[in-house]
Amino acid sequence: MRLIPFAAAALLLSAGSAMAQSSEPGVAVGATVGTPGSGLDVQVKIGPIFTLRGSLDRLGHSADKRYDGIDYNADIAFDTLGAFVDMHPLANGLMISGGAYLGSRDVALTATPTGPVDIGGQTYTPGQVGTLNGTVKLADIAPFVGIGWDDTFYRQSRWGFRAIAGVAWSDKPEVALTSTGGSLSNDATFRARLRDESRNITDEAEGYGLFPVIQVGLNYKF
Questions:
Q1: What is the 3-state secondary structure of 95-121?
Q2: 3-state DSSP: the chain helix, strand, coil percent, rounded to 5?
């Protein structure tokens, strides 16, 4: 029974030591990969619970997309800065994160129809349409919330691991379509149809405004 007080004291001393270590200020840099792309970040610890984090991410990806019955090649180009506050409520690796992504987030669309297509409610031939070019532009600011694990400032090693899952969101994207190389590319009525088509694509591309974030990273603290 005499061992119990000594064990309790040892546990208290151990917990106090861990809390003191976690409350020390620190700086860390890291590399990440995930749905926002590949990136770099910097963390500054400001107490036992809170860490400030800044990031730079780049995402480049190509995919085939079908909008309003027309097949497009979609080139995704996201170049974003991130600013976040990470809260560790238990003073360990468990993390709740909030902040925002800022910067250019565009999707370039290109389509060259090989058969008749419906544009703005009217059917046109490939020769009349030529090549369709468009841009899906997302808002420059996308708030973010997420939850994950980051033990960088809560372990003896200088290396730390982070994994986070969350969502960034923004308003409905803006879409603009143009035509080149077609016999009607400069026709006023056809261009009005392209504006109608742009609105149709905007409705279908609304899902781009809700962006899932899944990311892992390796950090080094100083």
A1: EEEEEEEEEEEEEEEEECCCCCEEECC
A2: 20, 55, 25
Cα separations (Å) of 51 from 48, 95, 161? 9, 10, 15
Q: In the structure encoding, which two tokens stand for residue 29, read together?
A: 């840099």
Tokens (6 digits) for 52? 């400030």
CB 209 within 8 A of CB 173: yes
0.90 exceeded by the pTM?
no
The C-alpha angle 72, 76, 77, rounded to 5 degrees, equals 145
Confidence grade of residue 24 (pLDDT, cut at 50, 70, 90): low
CB-based contact 36:213 (threshold 8 Å): yes
- Tell me what pLDDT residue 23 has: 56
Each residue of 60-79: pLDDT tens digit?
Answer: 989 898 888 899 999 988 99
Cα→Cα distances 122→61, 75, 189, Å: 32, 27, 11
CA of residue 14 relative to chain centroid, distance: 39
**DSSP symbols for 1-44:** -THHHHHHHHHHHHHHHHHHHHHS-EEEEEEEEETTEEEEEEEE
